[in-house]
Amino acid sequence: MGGDLFQDLPPPSASQTQLQELQSSTTVKEHSSNPPLEPPPPALKSALKRPKPPSSGEESKPQVSASALAPAPGKRLRFKTTTDASETQVIEAMQKIASHIKNSSKFSKASKLAVQLIQAGSVNPATSDHFFAILEGAMSSPTTCNEASLRADYHALFSAAQDAVECLNKKQKNLLTIWTTRAVMANDLFTDDSFVFSKASGRIKEAISSLPVATKDDDEEEAASLEETEVGKAHGESHRDNTSASSIPEAKEEEPDPFGLDALIPSTSKKDDTAKGKRELVAKNKKSEEDEARKFLRGQREALISCLEIAARRYKTPWCQTVIDILVKHASDNISRFTSRQRDAIDKLWASIREQQIRRKQGKSVSGKLDVNGFEWLQEKYANEKISIRHSVSGGGERRCEQWLG
């Protein structure tokens, strides 16, 4: 019954909706700008949606071209320097550089081209021999690398060559180590930067400490190499020919078999011959490795001696003196790692430096002025100065600096 009584009445929400409609109709009449505010959202959405298909289509077409246009210029330039040149072209370029790098007047340009090849990644196992010929031509004269006009170029070339070490064999690596000692470490001793000078001397000290103790065989080999250099390359080549000829008869001692009796001999003899050949090959390889190790040690010792001599020449520079004292003293302490001739050179260097130390302490020098380094000058200056707690040096106190200056 209750439902029938209220069935004809409108729901309460209907009255509220009717009122809202009346209010909205009045506001629509008063404010005509409201109707266009409702359509903009769909219009904006449709506007955004419409260009998407063409933009997506346009992007799909030129995506390759856009990626090629933006980063392609840089990649193309790198491609030309790295892989565009064929292997034959790289080899021809290395051969030309090797032919010109021996000339000191053309060394600067040739070395820069070689550095560009290294940076471009053109040095690989297939071209390593031709690249090593460039380094070998550059070091045809071991003293040219220390000339004032060529030091920077030699330093840059052999510093960059360290990036191509993995492509070289063991013999080439040993030679590169010797050449790096002469072209990089020795040239660092000519610098005017105290940090670079002390760092180079530290590397020389490490190289000296890594040397093994010299033996009598090393002395004999050194004397023999000096004799060969004095006689000349022709005598050395003839000596090598004689040694190679002496080994040839051993291979020709086998007589021919005109009657074919070797076929009747059991196969065990062939096995023995192959085993013997393998043993001889292993022995030859071992001997060649020992010879290469001895050559490396001899060359490295000579390079380190040249570094010590270059450092000793700079002893007149005050800020170099303390570092040189430590370096030559270290070489003197490890003198057993050098040959007899090199020991004499180290003894002379150490004796001359000790003499200069005594002269500096006595205040004697060629110029007549007090020739001391910075530390000794400060030590002498502040040894008798008075330090006050509340004032600066020479403030009237009685505290001396002798304790911390030694």
TrEMBL record:
Residues 1-83, 214-293 are annotated as: Disordered. Residues 230-242, 269-293 have a biased composition (Basic and acidic residues). Residues 14-27 have a biased composition (Low complexity). Coiled coil: none annotated. Residues 217-229 have a biased composition (Acidic residues). It comes from the Eukaryota. PANTHER family: F7O18.3 PROTEIN. This is Uncharacterized protein LOC113725596. It comes from Coffea arabica. The lineage of its organism: Eukaryota, Viridiplantae, Streptophyta, Embryophyta, Tracheophyta.
